[in-house]
Amino acid sequence: MVSGGGVLVKGPGGPKKAVKAAVTAGKSARYYPADDIPTPKHSRKKNENPPKIRPSITPGTVLILLAGRFRGKRVVCLKALASGLLLVSGPYKINGVPLRRVHQTYVIATSTKVDVSKVDVSSFNDEYFSRAKNSADEGEEEFFAGDAPRAAIVSDERKADQKKVDAELIKAVDAEPMLRGYLNAKFSLTKGEKPHLMKF
Q: What share of the chain is helix, strand, coil (3-state, %, to 5)?
């Protein structure tokens, strides 16, 4: 607080309360702390709400991938995971696209549907696709030795799960006429074609 002679006298509440009291009274504070008062910053780490899935994307919808290694391929949406990513498969035996997660931003939903009610995907979640930590981490010498990329190693569990899903999914695909050839064909645009005017 400030005395009548203009001498600063520290009240029992401290500098923070003095500034707060001056703001509450509508006056400008005559005392400012030497250090900035830290204020908590907004963090997105606690945001556990997954993004909403577009109404056009449902289990069994045929999607067109727009980015990544398999861009241009047609895949079947199996379900939406808790993180908001979509679980899709080619199937692998038809067009080479394995079980993987994709973001809905990078797909085009078509009007073609496949009955995937008999395909069991209850065991697949985001933890299933997490990268396994390598116990034998490379040292400094191995890091600078060469830039040759390591070949991806697919576990036997992944291979077994892929065969199990493909077995039921291919049955559903073969039940629809010409659907196997449609999934095997790669999507592309030629000169003059306008995707925003197309109906998928």
A: 25, 15, 60
Q: What is the pLDDT of residues 147-172, one digit of tens each?
A: 666 666 778 888 899 999 999 999 99
pLDDT digits (tens, 9 = 90+) for 58-98: 999 999 999 989 999 999 999 999 888 999 998 999 999 99
**195: which residues sit within 8 A by CB, 6+ positions away?**
108, 189
- CB-CB contact of 86 with 57 (8 Å): yes
* End-to-end C-alpha distance for the chain, whole angstroms: 71
77: exposed, middle or buried (Cβ count in 10 Å: 0-12, 13-18, 19+): buried
Which residues are within 8 A (CB) of 82 and not within 5 positions of it... i.e. 6 or more apart?
50, 125, 126
Query: Of all helices (H) and strands (E), which one includes residue 162?
Result: helix 156-174
pTM: 0.66
Place of tokens 């379900």: 79
Token look-up 């203009």 returns 6
Q: Quote the CA–CA distance of 198 and 84 in Å, as a whole number.
A: 26
Distance of alpha carbon 76 from alpha carbon 79, whole angstroms: 9
Residues paired with 62 in a beta bridge? 76
The length of the chain is 200
